[in-house]
Amino acid sequence: MIGGAALCLMLLNGRVMGMSGILSGLVSGGSDRAWRLAFVIGVVAGPLILVAFTQTSIVRQAVTSGPLFYVAAFLVGLGTAVGSGCTSGHGICGLSRLSVRSLVAVLAFMASAVVTVALLRFLG
Amino acid sequence: MLAIVAALGAGVLFGAGLGVAGMLNPAKVVGFLDIFGAWDPSLGFVMAGGILINAIGHYFVMKRGRPLFETSFSLPSLTSIDRPLVLGSIIFGIGWGLAGLCPGPVVASLLLSPLDMLPFLAALLAGSFLGRWLRAGA
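^ Those are the sequences you sent over. The predicted structure of the assembly is below.
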């Protein structure tokens, strides 16, 4: 479904489905905000529609709380802006386009995420 | 107008897909990243499947020459491997590992759990503003 969504956006609108880029384009202004807003509304609605249709709940267990939770959010925003992409943009779309730049980005964020989780495990 | 409806539909598919995959559960995402502990590789198959479907489709979409509802494809033009790409991605990975949340699932969870996701999104956007400001200055 995720691959299908990315494919739809490219086939129909010619756009890369990267959540961080779509979000930052939406809040920073510009001429093409309408489709970005429509996409974001769809992403927010998607899980609600899923829950309504399947009559099941979506399991969510938080792993952090307190200040660290917001530090994490800030780092995700900062890193995706500086590195021009996230899991959807570099991971799903970039790798599908055989982009070497995205492969380097994916290896970098996968490695740092794995190391972060490992450190938390050994320290905490 | 058609392009707006298409974006909405793609968004619904993406949001629902993240829900089906288990990407909206931070504990599951961290389990996928925890390869030195209680590793849960299942999300790897989700990502690999998504990439495979998209990669095969992408090949045929590009052969068309133009998208259906717009005049041309808007593809990233940068191909260089530079410091911002690597450093930014490393910073993003630290945040992803800490909370088990990347931008797609944050947006998809907004109404499922607004009390923690709205402030998370606010902090994420603050980081994103700083990032764009740094890039503009570099």
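Chain B is about 70% helix and 0% strand. Residues 1-75 of chain B form one domain.

Shout if you want it in another format.
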